[in-house]
Amino acid sequence: MDLLLLLTVLHLARTVASLVRAVVARRRQSQCYLLDYVCYKPCDGRKVSTEMAGHVIERNQRLGLPEYRFLLRVMVRSGIGEESYCPRNILEGREDTPTHQDALDEMDAFFDAAVAKLFHKTGLGPRDVDVLVVNVSMFSRAPSLASRIVGRFGMREDVAAFNLSGMGCSAGFVSLDLARNALRTRATSVALVVSTESIAPNWYAGTDRSMMMGNCLFRCGGSAALLTNDPSLGRRAKMALRHLVRENTAGDEEAHTCALQREDGDGRVGISLSKALPRVAGRALTLNLGRLAPRILPVSELARFAAGTMRKKLLSRGRVKHGGPKINFKTGVEHFCIHPGGTAVVEGVKGSLGLNASDVEPALMTLHRWGNTSASSLWYVLSYMEAKQRLKRGDRVLMLTFGSGFKCNSCLWEVKGYMADKGVWAQCINEYPPECITNPYADKYSWVNDVQGDTIVF
Question: What pLDDT score does 59 carry?
């Protein structure tokens, strides 16, 4: 009996040890580390100056004086400076007649620069990639762009490749979530996430005001990031992904149609941005942060907010209601990485979260230097923070982005390693932030501000 009891105990001990090892291995495998990332800087010959932007608008012979003034006013208020980038076909005056090759050339230039540089920085090669996720919202070709990257860089035959389209500016986090989930099913693996947008074939040449604004706001850019769940690689990672929350309000018709690709009355295709966009974005932001806050904020802050809300309800019975208490996200976050979709977008988030000028500086400076580069924009904002050496070990970085659908996605990173790479900001970071940002468009087209009657919605 004693021997049988001893064997039973040993068996149970081995079983428990195996379970513990499995739980530890599972936990390690569920970790998601950012090894490194690269933002794309097009060549200087593709910069869009004030003169060039005005000239492109003047080329559209369909525009009457009201539409011309409207577009100039959008540029004046956009927050974009003199050094953002556009595709070659627009510089060459062919925006109205783009070719399939124009789109491919735009993608290949980005792949050859950013993806190749990322492999060089990390010391990893294309055949080390187990998972590839590519997101380009406005260009879906066959074979896919993911397959194009596999072939261009000679990746392994068993690489799990995913290609996303139609996901808008928040596609970067959709790709990030997909890559993280794919890594959870593969032990000690590496994922490459590639985010960009196709501008070359998507210039809107019509006169619908809700569809003309995209021409003024969106610019060329892109990012490539390497992620891993391998603990040995994680030791040299820059950041660790702690939380990711996705909110999609497409079940609501107003939200679904507030940023929509469609034809205008003349059959020309473009992206329509409705006047409901700010309201829809605010609602999606509230829903997203409502799910995110309990995961990242201390209990003391959640208790303070709950007590304040309860007090407001008790005191406001039968009285005029005033604004209630706000959650202080700074109790759980040191840095805020906000999608630079436009000045109004950044200022709206600033007000909603109670942030200060320093908190939104990276987003506004990114908008000024690079414009809205769609799904890759947040990586330029993060790169600004890194170039300014703001990110210290243990700091938490909240990334927040919006996109058609309508979607609001957020994620929280924890800084794990030394971050001081100036990246694409290397040649200009010392110039930011300037004491006073001059608006070259306002200087040249100041007269358009005197025109009344139009509303900028984004």
Answer: 85
396-403 and 335-338: which strand pairing? parallel
Rounded to whole angstroms, what are the CA distances from 261 to 137, 211, 407? 11, 9, 15
Could you please state the CATH topology (level 3) that the domain comprising 240-308+326-448 is classified under.
Answer: Peroxisomal Thiolase; Chain A, domain 1 (3.40.47)
Please list the helix, strand and coil fractions of the chain in percent, rounded to the nearest 5, in that order.
50, 15, 35
What is the rounded CA–CA span in Å between residue 377 and residue 100? Answer: 25
* Residue 42 near residue 220, CB atoms below 8 Å: yes
The span from the CA of 254 to the CA of 277, in Å, is: 9
Q: Is the whole-model pTM more than 0.85?
A: yes
Residue 382, CA distances (Å) to 35, 80, 85, 391, 397 in order = 14, 18, 19, 9, 9
Count the Cβ atoms, other than its own, within 10 Å of residue 304.
16
What amino acid occupies position 336? F
CA–CA separation, 29 and 37 (whole Å): 21
3-state SS, residue 70:
helix
Give the position of tokens 């999608």: 339
The pLDDT assigned to 199 comes to 95
**Sequence-distant (≥ 6) Cβ neighbours of residue 56 within 8 angstroms:** 90, 95, 215
Q: What is the mean pLDDT of each run of 10 residues along the chain (458 residues)?
A: 57 56 50 98 92 83 83 82 93 92 97 97 97 96 97 97 95 97 96 97 90 89 98 96 97 94 92 91 95 94 86 66 74 96 92 95 96 96 98 98 95 96 96 77 58 38
CATH number, span 31-238: 3.40.47.10
User: How many C-beta atoms lie closer than 10 Å to residue 213's C-beta?
Assistant: 24
Residue 68 tokens read as 């011309």
Residue 385: CB partners within 8 Å, gap ≥ 6? 335, 337, 362, 391, 397
Alpha helices in 221-356 (DSSP H): 231-234, 253-257, 277-296, 299-315, 343-353
- The domain spans of the chain are 31-238, 240-308+326-448
Two tokens, residue 388: 């300014």
Q: How many Å apart are CA 162 and CA 418, to the nearest integer? A: 31
Q: Could you tell me if 63 and 166 are in contact, meaning their C-beta atoms sit under 8 angstroms apart? A: no
